[in-house]
Amino acid sequence: MSTPRLIKVLGISGSLRKKSFNTAILRAAQEIAPDGMQIHMRGLEDIPLYNDDLREAGYPAPVLAFRREIADADAVLIATPEYNYSIPGVLKNAIDWASRPPDQPFEGKPVAIMGASPGRLGTARAQYHLRQCFVFLDSLVLNRPEVMVGGAHAVIDDGGRLNDEATRDHVAKLLEALGAWTRRLT
Ligand SMILES: Cc1cc2nc3c(=O)[nH]c(=O)nc-3n(C[C@H](O)[C@H](O)[C@H](O)COP(=O)(O)O)c2cc1C
Fold this sequence. Notes:
6 strands; binds flavin mononucleotide; alpha/beta; single chain; six-stranded parallel beta sheet
C-alpha cells in the first residue's frame, strides 16, 4: 500500500501575546499532528496595518511572504481568540491583506478553525464571524468537529502547555478530519 503524501499545514495564531492560549493550542496541534501531517506555525507580528495605498505601491515584503506561505500550504489551521464577540483586529487585518488580488491565496484552500478563551463559549462567536469571512474568500472550511476551548486558563498551564487530555483528543480529531478533508479536496 502506498503511503499518503505529506500534508503541509500552515498554523496561524490570531494572538500576539507571548502566553497566548491560542498559540498554545496550536502548539499542541503541532505536537499531536497525525502521521502524514506537518504543521508550520506563523505569527502575525510582522504584518503592517492594512492600507490600500501600500498595496497599490506593491505588497510589503512580510505580506508577500504571508501570502506565499498560505499559497504553498496544503491547508490552513487558524486558532482565533475572541475579542468583543468577534475576530481580533490582528487576525482580520492579516486576512484582509491576504484577500486582495491577484491570486488570492485563500481561494479553494482547505481551512480549519479552532479557538480558546477563558470564557465559557470558547470563541464560538468569533469562529462564526471568521467562517463568514471565508465565505467571501471562497475557502473550503471544515465544518466539524468544532474546537471551542472554554475555560482555557484551566486547561493550559503557565508554561503554555495544553494539559487536558480530553481537549488534546478533541484537537487530534480536528486534525484527523482536516487531513481527510484536504486529501479529498486536493
Ligand atoms: C479587547 C478584548 C476583548 C475581549 N473580548 C472577549 C470576548 O468577547 N469573549 C471572550 O470569550 N473573551 C474575550 N476577551 C478575553 C480573551 O478571550 C482573552 O484575553 C484571551 O486570553 C485572548 O486570547 P490569547 O490568550 O490567545 O491571547 C477579550 C480580551 C480582549 C483583550
